[in-house]
Amino acid sequence: MVFGFAKKRLSHPLAPLQEKRTGHNNSGENFQHPERLNTISRVKMSAEEILVYAVELGKNSCLYFEELECDALCKEKILHRVLRNVNSQLLVVRPDLNVAAFEDVTDQEMQSGKGMHFSIHCYKTTTPLAGMPVAFSVQVEDKSYYMCCERECGEMIVRFKEGDVPKEIPGESNIIFFKKTFTSCSSKAFKFEYSMEKGMFLAFEEEGCLRKLTLKKLSKDEVDETMKISLSNFSQNENHNL
To answer: What is the number of other CB atoms lying within 10 angstroms of the CB of residue 111?
Structure first.
């Protein structure tokens, strides 16, 4: 989360950082200081590090800040991958059946890509410790579907809805997940935490012969293999990583 301050003064004056406008310091010596500073500063407040944008030095060399928008996400890049579970099965979306499940897929079926070639939309973040914010979409025939989470009968479920993923997200969104390394020993596998409910991760659950995509609560220090997801290119011969 980014916090910005408009026209707020630091508790002590800062010396000039760049040359731009002529002035005098307390000893009468000439110096130059900036009207604007294109820098990002870090301020410690209540034991929490906060990013602020330095704008200008005013009278008495006091530093002022520009107000920043909070919680905004801006799309940075898009990756094209298939999603595999711990059994190397691929996630396949079938909108006509309202089902998303991990399945055994042949090379020929994977190359056709129907419902399994995902676009992973990566967003810039100011809270990297939470994980990279991502959204998922998939093409089925000539339509695009995006992954989201909704509460139904008191339970969180994963859905795929027709539509496009937005380039910018102004605040919280039910389409955003935080990509985290699965474990320190499995750096090429990931788990995806739902951004609006801490501790809830994408996983699969057995339902008859299906391994359906779902959200699952992860207890602290627990390792749940059903949450382990690898990302690979569209060929099974390529490395299963980002």
So the answer is: 12
Tally the residues of the chain: 242
pTM tops 0.70? no
What is the pairing mode between strands 155-162 and 143-152?
antiparallel
Q: What is the dihedral of CA 224, 226, 228, 231, to 10 degrees?
A: -170
What distance in Å separates the CA atoms of residue 184 and residue 137, rounded to the nearest whole number?
28
Scan for tokens 């509460």, then name that residue: 151
Read off φ and ψ for residue 16, nearest 5 degrees: -60, 140
Distance between CA atoms of 156 and 150, rounded to whole angstroms?
6
Close Cβ partners of 158 (under 8 Å, ≥ 6 residues apart) = 100, 147, 148, 149, 202, 213, 214, 215
Place of tokens 């997200």: 169
CA distances from 26 to 11, 32, 146, 154, 173 (A): 18, 13, 60, 66, 51
For residue 128, give the 3-state DSSP assignment.
helix
pLDDT digits (tens, 9 = 90+) for 113-168: 889 999 999 998 877 788 999 999 999 999 999 999 999 998 999 999 999 999 88
